[in-house]
Amino acid sequence: MNPNGRVPVIDDDGFILYESNAIIRYLRAKTVPSEFTSKHLQSWSYQDQWMDWTSATLYYPLFREFYIYFARTPSEELIESKASQLFDSIRPLMKIADDQLKQAPFIAGKTFSMADIPLGVLIDKWEKIDLKKSNFLNLSLYYDRLLERKDFCNCVAQYALNAV
Ligand SMILES: N[C@@H](CCC(=O)N[C@@H](CS)C(=O)NCC(=O)O)C(=O)O
């Protein structure tokens, strides 16, 4: 279904779609069509901005490298200098998210939106990695807010960092 041989991919009555952010936008527009109108263009685009920031700026390649090191290295083999180097490389990006979450409870504003789906998945990994991250209080408070959501617990948080 996906020429890249990857997940996620959906088949919505014969309409095949891949790329996780495209799938989220499609499902949101399909289930709440009123949001996908010119009247809400700026709000939609703002959520879109944070989704793409999460995937294209935060995740690839720095966050991916950071979390995979912790997820796939047995704890007794972790090297402190390598862990610090990875942490230092993503600190400026995490600060951008933390600053944004100081201003609003969710990444694109006052309420949970589609933009919280890709970011929430990464913040779950972030919170499960045992490093001193006290400068990022807003990210931890955000994670607590996400944990109040049953679907977030069932679909994301219940899985271990190294779950495939
Ligand atoms: N940019 C794609 C990335 C898709 C991707 O890399 N999926 C991984 C899982 S997160 C996968 O299918 N890996 C299996 C493999 O590479 O064989 C998206 O956001 O959907």
Strand and helix map with partners:
Blueprint: E1 9-12, E2 15-18, H1 20-31, H2 41-72, H3 80-103, H4 116-128, H5 137-147, H6 150-157
Antiparallel strand pairs: 1-2
This protein binds glutathione.
Glutathione (GSH) is lined by residues 6-8, 19-20.
CATH class annotation of the largest domain: Mainly Alpha
What integer value in Å does the Rg equal?
17 Å
How far do the termini sit from each other?
Answer: 20 Å
Per DSSP E runs of 2 or more residues, the count of β-strands stands at: 2
Q: Beta-strand level of the residues, as a percent range? A: under 5%
The domain count comes to 2
Q: Architecture of the largest domain, according to CATH? A: Up-down Bundle
CA-based shape: globular
Task: Describe the overall structure.
With 164 residues, the protein is mainly α. Helices cover 61% and strands 5% of the residues. A two-stranded antiparallel sheet has the order 1-2. A hairpin with a 2-residue loop joins β1 and β2. α2 packs parallel to α4, α3 (80-103) packs across α5 and α4 crosses α5. The structure holds glutathione (GSH). Glutathione is lined by residues 6-8, 19-20.
Short structural summary:
The chain is 61% helix and 5% strand.
Output the keywords.
mainly alpha; Glutathione S-transferase Yfyf (Class Pi), Chain A, domain 2; 2 domains; 61% helix; binds glutathione
